[in-house]
Amino acid sequence: MLEVVKWDERFSTKAVERILDDKLTWRAKRKVVDKLVATYILQGYLDYMI
Q: Which helix (H) or strand (E) holds 18?
């Protein structure tokens, strides 16, 4: 049986948008935000596991 781990991701989009705020236009951001949010959530979980 696998263990299910619930991970809070409520503020991940805002955190990534804050990082990208000055670096990209909103059109460019729109293309990469979802990918970066997934990376941000995964990295947070991996850091927690260590």
A: helix 12-20
